């Protein structure tokens, strides 16, 4: 028995030593940005840190807890000279981080007063394969929208730098959330991308649909009254916010008709129930003919 146990234990100890060594490397917080509804953005730098789109890291703040590590998806792009995470204040640890960064104070916080941060990672996810397809469907549910902030930023940098060599030609983005106000920082990113794509006369490159699932009668009435305005009253985007949940069967059939003979990557960051639905739709809408349309499903659950 010991022969079978020693090998895995040795590999496990090596992995723990590597993670401990990485967590001891110096991390500098370069900027703390306070977003609406108690969401903070930490922009950081670390020597030798290399990331890909959609990856995540483990974060420890000794000023809050010397033992707790928490995973956060990276919201920056590999092309940027820093890496960032967005933290929504929803518990004791995040509240402690919020206060440690001086976000509860009105005056300007000096950089040397910011807490020390330990970072372990980055670690890979399915989102890294986005650039392997010409057409992709990105589906984010609630907080699951964060990996696609990194993806959309990176797509924009690549598009501006060398659009002709970018394999990715079309993005269908779906964002399902109960309350868009909780993620206003992401709506700001979409507004920026929307404006820049229109300036380059390529507004069709990114098609996005925002579904507000936690609506009530008051919201619905307000939505109907202002539906004819140029921009959406909730997000400020030209694309109107939709109420309820998408009809996935219709969405898949429409995309299959628009891209015959293509391999379409379907990427989800969301709950297991939604993953089952998208997986079934990917299978049922893929053709048996190798030359036909095929949906390739990728997921990460929370």
UniProtKB/TrEMBL annotation:
One of its GO terms (molecular function) is metal ion binding. GO terms for cellular component: monoatomic ion channel complex; NADPH oxidase complex. It is found in: Cell membrane. The keyword Cell cycle does not apply. GO terms for biological process: defense response; monoatomic ion transmembrane transport; superoxide anion generation. InterPro entries: Cyt_b245_heavy_chain, FAD-bd_8, FAD-bd_FR_type, Fe_red_NAD-bd_6, FNR_nucleotide-bd, RBOH/FRE, Riboflavin_synthase-like_b-brl. Signal peptide: none annotated. Residues 19-129 form the FAD-binding FR-type domain. Its main location: membrane. Its cofactor is FAD. It is a multi-pass membrane protein. It catalyses: NADPH + 2 O2 = 2 superoxide + NADP(+) + H(+). Keywords: Cell membrane, Electron transport, FAD, Flavoprotein, Glycoprotein, Heme, Ion channel, Ion transport, Iron, Isopeptide bond, Membrane, Metal-binding, NADP, Oxidoreductase, Phosphoprotein, Transmembrane, Transmembrane helix, Transport, Ubl conjugation, Voltage-gated channel. Catalytic subunit of the phagocyte NADPH oxidase complex that mediates the transfer of electrons from cytosolic NADPH to O2 to produce the superoxide anion (O2(-)). In the activated complex, electrons are first transferred from NADPH to flavin adenine dinucleotide (FAD) and subsequently transferred via two heme molecules to molecular oxygen, producing superoxide through an outer-sphere reaction. This is NADPH oxidase 2. It comes from Neopipo cinnamomea.
């Amino acid at each position: 028995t010991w022969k079978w146990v020693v090998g895995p234990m040795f590999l496990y100890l090596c992995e723990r030593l590597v993670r401990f060594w990485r967590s001891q490397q110096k991390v500098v917080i370069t900027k703390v940005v306070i977003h609406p509804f108690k969401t903070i953005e930490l922009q950081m730098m670390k020597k030798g840190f290399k990331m890909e789109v959609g990856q995540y890291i483990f974060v420890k703040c000794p000023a809050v807890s010397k033992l707790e590590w928490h995973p956060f998806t990276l919201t920056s792009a590999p092309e940027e000279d820093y890496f960032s995470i967005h933290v929504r204040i929803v518990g004791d640890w995040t509240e402690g981080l919020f206060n440690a960064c001086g976000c509860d104070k009105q005056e300007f916080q000096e950089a040397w007063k910011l807490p020390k941060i330990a970072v372990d990672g980055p670690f890979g996810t399915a989102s890294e394969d986005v650039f392997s397809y010409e057409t992709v469907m990105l589906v984010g549910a609630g907080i699951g929208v964060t990996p696609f902030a990194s993806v959309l930023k990176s797509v924009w940098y690549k598009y501006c730098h060398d659009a002709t060599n970018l394999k990715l030609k079309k993005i269908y983005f779906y964002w399902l959330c109960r309350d868009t106000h909780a993620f206003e920082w992401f709506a700001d990113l979409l507004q920026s991308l929307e404006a820049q794509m229109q300036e380059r006369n390529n507004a069709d490159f990114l098609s996005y649909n925002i579904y507000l699932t936690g609506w009530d009668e008051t919201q619905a009435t307000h939505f109907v009254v202002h539906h004819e305005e140029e921009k959406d009253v909730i997000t400020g985007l030209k694309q109107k916010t939709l109420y309820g949940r998408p009809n996935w069967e219709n969405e898949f059939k429409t995309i299959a008709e628009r891209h015959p003979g293509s391999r379409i990557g379907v990427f989800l960051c969301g709950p297991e129930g939604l993953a089952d639905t998208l997986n079934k739709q990917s299978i049922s809408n893929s053709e048996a003919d190798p030359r036909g349309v095929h949906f390739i499903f990728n997921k990460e659950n929370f």
